[in-house]
Amino acid sequence: MQRFAAFVMRHRIWVAVAWVAVTVVGVLMAPHVSGRLKSGTTISAASYTANQALQKEYGGVAARPSVLVVGLPQGTTVDSPRVKGGLAAADRVAASVPQVRYLSYANTGDRSLVGTGGTSTLVMVYPPHMGDPVPQQVTDAMGSAITHAVPGATVQVTGVEQLSAGGGASGGSVLSEILVGIGLALVVLAWVFGSALAVLPLISAIISVLTMQLAIWGLTYVTSIAINPSVQFIVALLGLGLSVDYALLLVNRWREERDAGADNKTAVIRSLRKAGHSVAFSALIASLGLFALMVVPVSFLQGVGMSGLFIPSIAALVALTVVPLLLSSAGPRMDRIRLRKRKSTGPGTMWTNAAQAIVRRPKLAAAAGAAVLGALCAFGLTINMNQPAVTSLSPAGPAQQGLVALQHDGFPSGILTSVPVQLPADADPAATAATLRSLPLMHGVLVADTPAWQHSDSSVIMGLPKTEVGTSHAGSVVSDLRAAAPHDALIGGEDVQNTDITHIMIQWLPVLLGVVALVTFVLLARGMRSLLLPAKAVALNVLSVGAAYGALVLVWQLGYGSNTLWGIPATGSISPLVPMLLFGFLFGVSMDYEVFILARVREAFDRTGDTNGAVVEGISRTGRLVTSAALILFLALLSLSSAPDVTIKMMATGMAAGVLIDAVVVRTLLTPALVVLFGRANWYLPAWAAKALRIKPAASVDHADLDDHDDDLLDRAGTVPPLRA
Q1: What 8-state DSSP symbol labels residue 416?
Q2: Which Pfam families does this one have (predicted)?
Q3: Which pLDDT value is given to residue 362?
Q4: 601: closest CA among 540, 545, 659, 682?
Q5: Is CATH 3.30.70.1130 the classification given to domain 48-164?
Q6: Among 118, 270, 481, 510, which has the highest number of CB atoms less than 10 A from its own CB?
Q7: How far apart are CA 651 and CA 637, in angstroms?
């Protein structure tokens, strides 16, 4: 790192020019990145194969339908001439739009589309492509055609896509929520630094995120893995968090060196030399942790994993080059622009007192932290990974009103998760539909004898389940359909595919956990030259993720928070993508905090040989840094939770809770308490382990002032390796 620092300072003009060029290109290319991304998810499953075949032959019939709930005026039924004319008019509107398909009483004659008492009926409309909603102008035109032909009729539109989008109510975009988060981050940074230095981490974050977008654009040309548009949001969020973390550490260390009397150039080089190792090491672990998502055979997660390999690396590279350049050229002048009274960068009084209290009573602190984590992890073990019920997708709005009307008229909500079945030419659609209708969890099976639904070599019938496919209430509807349908039939549907994705994720989550834990342990063991510290770090990271899962269960699955904060009832389950992404995000961010704290603890221990004193110094100097970084992420995520989509709300609240729990309970309470309790065992690295890790074992030391816990844990002949911080 010494040579790297010297290189950056020696070639600072060329380094600055390079980053300006990259930033300009990033600004120019950012609008074009989305055009290179592909929606949808690729998996190795029968449902994916079926959906691809359906898309090729029948357009978006595997998509979730937009459902028109038609309320009929008094004295009319679906068999009334005016009603038949209105439904036929709506059918003509849909038929005029290429690749839009529809099912109604007019083209199926199926009574499962008629409500209780015959006073209402449904029209199912399917988009040209799975994953896209039916254009609103199409459903509006169909509704107008019905109300024009049938005076007094009412038409309401509902569907999973409409409910997920906020029920038709207006809502802010993800971009606007992130901008709010950046504004809140600036407020916190201004409080932390009390000067114009607050803008440096944000400058670093902006350059990092733009560079990451450029890297994603390049990835789309060199990999066959489809990168989902949601990756842009994940990159922006994680890039913001990591960039601010790394820049905070460097700027804070630069201030310490300046307060110690160093000139500006020396302070910049020393901050790079001392804090740079922590930044680079933390980025390496976070990159490999995210890259481990590649082991899960789901294209969405593999795209995140592929992109995640570059997110922490780019954030670290920008922090290690741009921040020193800005500090060397304008750091002192920016620090003189005061926003409040300047505080010393030395050990904070509050954090010193807190650390001393933990050192005096480490068992009490560890027990308190373990109790909080244990309680939350207990709830986390009950997590139900399934799609949320449709009744919890939107608290209000036109789509929610349409859902209420649909259920009031006797239709089950499972209709919104319809299941297309593609039959070969030799199969009789009517006979197969009759067989499937007899299944206990089927509300009906629709057969339309029209060219849109029947080709020369195949046909499609549409199953209407009573229960919502993909949710925890689905029951055995999918397995029943697969067992009863002809062996060469293709059973598709977006929610059937989501069911298969859920099964894959549940199977691969332990593998992902094992891979990330092993890689993290090996890297930490090499970096810290210890076996106990990395084992503790990995265990606490797993517990931290488990606690975040527990918060998700409490807030969303059980509804202790979702109803109060957003008016959304308990979902009964958590969207399967959320736990996976939460795992990758928290493992990366929490490892930052762990490395930042332990690096300072190790630095103090190497200087004094006193574990207890090292803990006090490490926490007193990093406590404010870690909690400030966590607060910035927490506020950014909290602002994101106001987005209309329930899955984004889940992800934002889970990440926000996880960051807060990790920073407050794990890193500033449990970590120092356990380091004190483990005593000298923290620094022990046997010769066989050093050989296996391909590092040199450190020389043995014998400090007289080691803490009182040593004799209980380790013989005094252990090794104490140096840790670069």
Answers
A1: G
A2: MMPL
A3: 94
A4: 682
A5: yes
A6: 481
A7: 9
pLDDT of residue 375 exceeding 70, the answer is yes
pLDDT at 704: 36
Distance between CA atoms of 577 and 21, rounded to whole angstroms?
A: 36
* 446 vs 604, residue with greater confidence: 446
Provide the β-strand partners of residue 156: 69
Amino acid at position 316, single letter: A
Question: Does the structure show a pLDDT above 90 at 411?
Answer: yes
Reduce the DSSP state of residue 463 to 3 states and report it: strand
Report the CATH fold assignment for 419-492. Answer: Alpha-Beta Plaits (3.30.70)
Q: How far apart are CA 468 and CA 387, in angstroms?
A: 9
pLDDT in tens, 604-640: 888 888 889 999 998 988 888 888 888 888 887 877 7
Tens digit of pLDDT for each residue in 673-717?
999 999 888 888 888 888 888 887 654 444 433 333 333 333 333
Band (725; pLDDT cuts 50, 70, 90): very low
Chain center to CA of 173:
16
CB 36 within 8 A of CB 229: no
The predicted pLDDT at position 582 comes to 87
Confidence of residue 722 (pLDDT cuts 50, 70, 90): very low
206 near 195, Cβ under 8 Å? Answer: no
User: Fold identical between 48-164 and 419-492?
Assistant: yes
Angle at 248 between CA 243 and CA 251, to 5 degrees: 120
Q: 3-state SS of 27-89?
A: HHHHHHHHHHCCCCCCECCHHHHHHHHHHHHHCCCCCCCEEEEEECCCCCCCCCHHHHHHHHH
Place of tokens 């974050």: 205
Q: What topology is assigned to 347-386+499-725 in CATH? A: Multidrug efflux transporter AcrB transmembrane fold (1.20.1640)
In whole angstroms, what is the distance from residue 439 CA to residue 517 CA?
45
Q: Please, are residues 120 and 56 in contact by the beta-carbon 8 Å criterion?
A: no
Report the alpha-carbon distance of residue 86 to residue 90 in Å, rounded.
6
pLDDT per position as a tens digit, 449-463: 899 999 989 999 999
Only one residue has tokens 């697969």, namely 482
Domain extents in the chain: 27-36+172-343, 48-164, 347-386+499-725, 419-492
Q: Report pLDDT digits (tens) over 534-579.
A: 999 899 989 999 999 999 999 999 989 888 888 888 888 898 888 8
Share of the chain above pLDDT 90, in %: 41
- Side-chain-side CA neighbours of residue 517 (13 Å): 15
CA distance 125 to 713: 68
